[in-house]
Amino acid sequence: MPAVVAAAKPAESADALVRKEVARILKGPVAERMSSLIPPLAGHPDAFKMVMDSPELLDACLKLFRLKRDLFNEFLVDQAGALVADDAVRLKCGRSVNEVIGMAVRQGMRAYAEIFFGDPVTAPKDGPPTPKPAPPKPAPRGWYKFIDLSKLGGKFRDHHGNDKPLPKAQTNAGRFYASIKDALDYEWQVRFFPIYVQIPAHVFDKLGAGITRMDTEERLYRLAHLAMADINKAEQVIKNPLLFREMIDNNVLAAGTVSQLGEAGFQQVHSALQNLSPQAKWDVLANRDTAKRLVDDKRITKQDIEALGEYLSVLNEFALDAIFDLKLSREQMQLFLKTAEQNLGAKLFTALFGPIQEIVPEDPEEQQKLRKYQVFTQTSLRSMVSAVKQLDDSLRRSGGEGEIGECLATVCRTRRPDLEKDLKKLMPAMLA
């Protein structure tokens, strides 16, 4: 009887070999280097696993790499052995720094999902085991200023519904990870792992990167309060599937505005923002109250929107009113804002001209502080605009040239010290 020859094992693809090499480097020499620099990892038999199981440690490792990049130079070389400074350029291992970070973020999310849901991403051949979720742990100190994880999860479920019953062959971690993995690329996403696992998997299936591009705690909070009905209505308003996807991928919060603007209002604003990048355009539309004012205030024309374009994502509606109350020409509008920013400084400019905080803290004392702070900033802005008008009128009456930019610069410089002092006193903890 002829001998049975085993079928030859298919050769691994070039991509699989590269992934294997990157994993070898991360688990071996890179983990070793991190162990020598981060005390909790020292002496641990599997430092790589320890890091992947802890978003806090993964975040610390990624920050350390950014802070002390030169300590990892031996891994940051190309095929010729030359040092690579550009994070988008391929290294000797076959991946760029950006790609390796993306791999680490996805691996960390996978590990965290398995711990959180209590079952493996890949179900064993004999079927999914009974889930054993880890007891809830508070988020690392300092990661979130005002988010309560369980309440946030409840908001997502209230507005988007629970996941359907789990298919027999799938695990909870497997379903969740499959829905999120293609939307993970950036190191800043690590600190949002405890938030992501609170979001039903079907919401990731629908929105994908629309969720994981929310790069602040406040944006994720606003997303939790955005109903799926608003997103669906925005889809009907936009009509164009590619344009709707562009909104989701750049700033899904714009759906709340689009759903309220209606077709005519949306077309009016959207057509005036064509000179902006997709990201900047949808950021403007996500700035809800200001975007709505662009339609409701009949003084504002398409040309005005074009002139103000680059600032509209950060202006509050009261700042917009101030610009039109001063009857500025389109050439003066940008100059006015640039002058204010230069003479007030970025922090004070944002406090007076920037978006108004929508999130209300639960603590009554903090709520009162926030209200007082917001009243103060709005009153200060109105007072400053009034002073600019008076100075401009005074110069004109005395026969001088009434240059609005110079008047604004004078008022900003004069008031800045006292404004900074008062804002520091009034600023609530959530904004500090």
Tell me how many strands there are: 0
Order of helices and strands: HHHHHHHHHHHHHHHHHHHHH
Globally, the shape reads globular
For the largest beta-sheet, the strand count, sense and barrel status come to: none
Give the strand content.
under 5%
What value does the Rg take, in angstroms? Answer: 27 Å
> Count of DSSP helices?
21
Helicity range of the residues?
55-70%
Describe it.
- The protein has 432 residues and is an all-alpha fold.
- Among the domains are: 148 residues, no CATH class; 116 residues, no CATH class.
- It has 21 helices and no strands.
- The mean pLDDT is 90.
Question: What secondary-structure arrangement, pairings included, does this model have?
Answer:
Elements: H1 14-37, H2 47-52, H3 55-67, H4 97-117, H5 149-160, H6 172-180, H7 193-196, H8 201-207, H9 209-212, H10 217-224, H11 228-238, H12 241-251, H13 254-272, H14 278-286, H15 288-296, H16 302-308, H17 317-325, H18 330-344, H19 346-353, H20 364-397, H21 404-426
Helix pairs in contact: 4-6, 6-8, 11-13, 12-14, 13-14, 13-15, 13-16, 16-18, 18-19, 18-21, 20-21
